[in-house]
Specification:
Gyrase A, domain 2; alpha+beta; four-stranded antiparallel β-sheet; Cyclophilin; elongated; 203 residues; 32% strand; 4 helices; four-stranded mixed β-sheet
């Protein structure tokens, strides 16, 4: 663990891998001192934002070092269900890469309980991981100039849903009508770090 100041109101915690980030994020969400105003996880870092009027950096550092990272559990937590039409342009290619039939890819994707590890790339985009998903999917050799809003995709160990039309190099396996980012909603992002997600096949 390496702690770095990040302006007057932030502390950046560098960790070895995403599993450590997820565990520390869960621990601090459950028990952080008054004055911590936000926790922003990424692939190998956790940004702790605090109010310097009520909490100094030294106290934040002590809280981070004293935190007992916990492995998150699916039990007893609300799950966001996302209906998906599994007709993505890259589904057959992904199946070929994995040595599976397309229906087996769909079964594996819907059979996993996913969790939002961190957000990024675009407002509302969540990088989802699942213990049940052990595949590492290569990105496309050439990115698309426009991926449609609602596209459900895979890249590396992650799954994700494009919240709006944008360029992208992930492998597209399906699409959903669920709105991922809505400025009229509080909070605007449906998929936030720590949220559990279950993909279900649309009827």
């Amino acid at each position: 663990m390496h702690l770095l100041p990040c302006g007057d109101t932030g502390l950046l915690v560098e960790l070895d891998d995403l599993a450590q980030v997820t565990a520390l994020h869960a621990a601090l969400r459950a028990d952080s001192p008054p004055g911590v105003v936000d926790l922003v996880p990424a692939a190998r870092t956790l940004l702790v934002r605090f109010d310097p009027r009520t909490l100094d950096r030294a106290a934040v550092e002590r809280a981070v070092r004293a935190a007992r990272p916990v492995r998150t559990s699916h039990t007893g937590e609300d799950v966001v269900e996302i209906p998906v039409s599994y007709d993505g342009d890259d589904l057959a290619e992904v199946a070929g890469l994995l040595g599976l039939a397309p229906r087996e890819v769909v079964a594996a994707h819907t059979g996993a309980c996913w969790s939002v590890a961190f957000g990024g790339f675009a407002p509302g985009f969540g990088y989802l991981t699942a213990d049940e998903w052990s595949h590492d999917i290569p990105r496309r050799a050439e990115s698309r100039t426009a991926v449609p809003e609602g596209a459900v995709a895979l890249a590396g160990p992650f799954s994700g849903v494009y919240p709006r039309s944008s360029p992208g190099g992930w492998q597209l396996i399906g699409r959903t009508e669920v709105t991922l980012w809505d400025t009229g909603r509080e909070p605007p992002a449906l998929l936030r770090p720590g949220v559990r997600v279950r993909f279900v096949e649309a009827g």
